[in-house]
Amino acid sequence: MFMTINLTKLVFATKNKNKLSEVKNMLENSNIEIVGIEGEFDPEETGATFEENAFIKAFEAAKITNLPALGDDSGLMVDALDGRPGVYSSRYEKTDEKRINKLLQELEHTKQAARSARFVCSMVIALPSGEKVFSTTQNCEGEIAFLPSGSEGFGYDPIFYLPEKNATMAELTMEEKNKLSHRAKALGKTLEWLISGKNN
Ligand code: IMP
């Protein structure tokens, strides 16, 4: 049977306040309402890909809230490390500072020309029934800097250098980051799909 799904209000399947404020900022002028998830939310990220983990989070949030949910899984892939830390980006070390230091140490002997990397973001919309109605995976290309710089953003932003901006991601304002980041691109594709009405 053909069914119309109301996708104007979605729950964002994350407890990461930085991600939530980035996404809220990007949706400010749209008619899509995004709400945070209340209470304990920590689904086990057992997927082998960003997309699988984004779905795990989205389905869990949709089940809990009975709302369509937007799941985001993201991370950093470094070419010189064969794509690591990848889906393990948040589990690579215990704090942002330790993650950054470990990565810089691993790349201690890697010259600038070989420090290419990308942020990757998968976004998935799942329904409480478990149906995956949309997914996209987007990248933001850059390099791993030799030293951290900047205090905006979160996570690996201080060591993610964008040659075209001559700045690290943490040296950009949220508005600037939201024009070029992996998350901004993934959300852009998600919005295009939501607004195009392909979902009804
Ligand atoms: P997730 O919550 O499992 O998606 O964790 C993603 C990991 O990648 C976290 O450790 C973040 O620090 C890192 N990450 C994801 N997106 C960004 C970003 O926009 N900037 C910096 N680090 C990010």
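qc> The longest strand covers residues 132-144.
qc> done
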